[in-house]
Amino acid sequence: MKADLIKEDELHILLIDVAQKYGYDFTEYSMASLKRRVNRLCLIDKHKSFAELRYRILNDEEYLSRFVEEITVNVTEMFRDPSFYKTIRETIIPELATHPHIKIWLAGCSTGEEVYSLSIVLHETGLLHKTLLYATDINPSVLEVAKQGIYAIGDMKLYSENYINSGGIKDFSTYYSAIYDHIKLIDELKLNTVFATHNLVADRSFNEFQLIICRNVLIYFNKDLQEKVLTLFDDSLENSAFLALGSKETIRFSDLESKYTQIGREKIWRKNC
Amino acid sequence: MEEKLLNKKIELLVIGGSAGSFDVLLQVIPKIKSDINFPIIIILHRKSNTPTSIAKIFSSKTNLPVIECEEKEILQPGTIYFSPPDYHLLVENDHSVSLDSSEKVNYSRPSIDVTFKNLADLYHENLAAILLSGANSDGAKGLFYIKRNNGITIVQDPAVAEIKFMPQQAINLFEVDHIFNIEEIINYINNINTTLN
User: Fold this and answer.
1) Tell me, what CATH number does B176's domain have?
2) How many C-beta atoms surround the C-beta of residue A9 within 10 A?
3) For chain A, which ranges sit under pLDDT 50?
4) Mutate which of B72, B92, B109, B122 to disrupt the A interface (most A C-beta within 10 Å)?
């Protein structure tokens, strides 16, 4: 185990460069994670010095894409935390069902596994046809994967178990067809889904929703940025709408706390009327 | 050098453990004195869908507050923090906790190596680390990194560990400062930052 190639003061310089040249602002990300990601990238890509990494990023736009892709975390799975999807299915869905049209925003959707998980729940509860689902991420390349809906067949055992533990009642394999070592999810699931880039740091609210899901994204932001993004969500939620976060994320200590009521033990809050 | 090492203040104790460590913690945690003046972080490998909260289990066995870490929790002296399952645990310069759900390291999330490295960079010689029983090599390299950053390194004596592989990996890799049985671990913790240590 080696000491970090990129020190924290150098990382700050690099982040300001990237923000100025490309408009990707990572300066308010949580430094401990970011430092680890950047140094991991240097190991993988065999950079020898800070100067070398900086030169490459500032002079090679394709490499910038790789940089963004690698320092943002894209680890996800279908029906991640099954109890969360059980609460969505049993508690949130009946509330959403009362609306003639449903608008949902899945922010930081990464490679799409959670988008399709939600679509399956909406499909099984008969709401998919009247739902518009916005799936956004900062990173265009993961959105391409999300749009395809093609995943490794080896993950299906876990996903199928998660699905059953979340209250799924069908044979999970009816949702995909296998092609060699991959599976393709049925197109019906993405019928009313819009995949689009959205940068939570820089972009504004673009609609009003009855449910916003943003899981394991805020953990990579510092407190100030978390507060800004929570305010963006608050501005994008109708009264009585729901906000769902990752299992260790909270709106405690934020301005939203007094305006929202937590639903049971899951990290789901309802905006007060 | 010796003089300097004797006088250094420990600002944080971190304990890493895997298979066979839960029982060690059940013996150690109830014996930790309630007036310790540093936080304790425990990185324990366990199943991600454990229904009972680990904080609840240990809270009933000690007067010290026991917390399963949430995002941006600020570390307090005299408090025991467990890493939540399925997240790496990192500490920021302001001593707040950042969780990270990125790729597994050494087939593990949380990874002991990830936290050990992060803490060594932050606390240097003011860090003490203990590596307990386990069947995984996670933690050995991180413990060596702590040693190179002048922290105190301790392993559970493989002879008494339920699964000796993990502490043995560290011993094979470098000269650890102490090889302790459970009684010695308890004594060590209770004498941190006192005149005896």
Assistant:
1) 3.40.50.180
2) 8
3) none
4) B72
